[in-house]
C-alpha cells in the first residue's frame, strides 16, 4: 500500500516547478525510470538494457525526448554501469538525466518523489519480474501513466490507460523459475502511444486509490485479523 496523501499530483520541488528544477522544458517528452540498480553483475531483473535500447530507438524520431533514471548509475551495488549502457545503445548523453548522487544516497522524501512522478509523461517500468512493483502504483497516484510488463505482479498494477508489455520467457536457473524479457519494439510502441496522450491521467489516480493505506487496511487487513482472531 502507499500513502495517497503524499503520493498525489505535486507540481513543485523545493519551491520550484519540478521541470524547472530538473532543467527540463515543458514541451520535452520526459520518460522516467525509478528502479534499483542492483543485480548479480550479469542478469538485471529491472531490464535496464531493454528499456534503454527502446529509448534509443524512440529518441531518433523524438529528439526532444528525455530520460530520467532515478538510480545509482555505477556498479556500486552489483548492478550495471548505466553510463556505459547509455553509450552502448547510442543515446545522446544530454538526453539522459540522473539524480544528484548525494541526494540519492541520503534519499528523496515522499513529497520529492511525488513531484518527480508528476513531472514524467510516463513511467517506464518493464522488468523481468516483480514481487510487487511499488513505483508503478506511486506514479499512477500522481497521475502518471506507466509502461510495465504483462507478467507476474505487474499485470495487476496498471490502470486501463496504462501499457502492458509482453515478452519472451527466460529461464532463471538460480531461482528455478521463469523470467520474461520485455520486447523492445513493444516498449517503443508504448512510448509512441503515451506521447499521443495528455500527461495527466485521472484514471490512473482513481486506479491507485485501491492501493491506499486506508483502503488496504480497512478492507483487507482488518477483515483478515477479525477472521483469524475468532
Tell me the overall shape.
globular
Quickly count the helices.
9
Largest sheet: 6 strands, parallel
State the secondary-structure class: alpha/beta
Sheet with most strands: strand arrangement: 5-4-3-6-7-8
Query: Rg to the nearest angstrom?
Result: 18 Å
Could you spell the SSE succession in H and E letters? EEHEHEHEHHEHEEEEHHH
Query: What does the average pLDDT come to?
Result: 96
Percent range of helical residues: 25-40%
- The unreliable regions are none
Share of β-strand residues: 15-25%
Query: What distance lies between the first and last C-alpha atoms, to the nearest angstrom?
Result: 26 Å
Number of strands: 10
Give the structure's gist in a few sentences:
The protein has 230 residues and is of the alpha/beta class.
Description:
The protein is an alpha/beta fold and 230 residues long. The protein is 37% helix and 18% strand. The chain has nine helices and ten strands. It has helices spanning 18-22, 48-61, 82-89, 101-106, 110-119, 134-141, 184-195, 202-208, 213-228, and strands at residues 12-13, 16-17, 29-34, 65-70, 96-97, 122-125, 146-149, 163-165, 167-172, 177-182. Strand 1 and strand 2 (16-17) form a beta hairpin. Helix 2 (48-61) crosses helix 3 and helix 6 (134-141) packs across helix 8 (202-208). The longest helix has 16 residues, at 213-228. The chain is globular, with a radius of gyration of 18 Å. The two termini are 26 Å apart.
List the SSEs and their pairings.
Layout: E1 12-13, E2 16-17, H1 18-22, E3 29-34, H2 48-61, E4 65-70, H3 82-89, E5 96-97, H4 101-106, H5 110-119, E6 122-125, H6 134-141, E7 146-149, E8 163-165, E9 167-172, E10 177-182, H7 184-195, H8 202-208, H9 213-228
Parallel strand pairs: 3-4, 3-6, 4-5, 6-7, 7-8
Antiparallel strand pairs: 1-2, 9-10
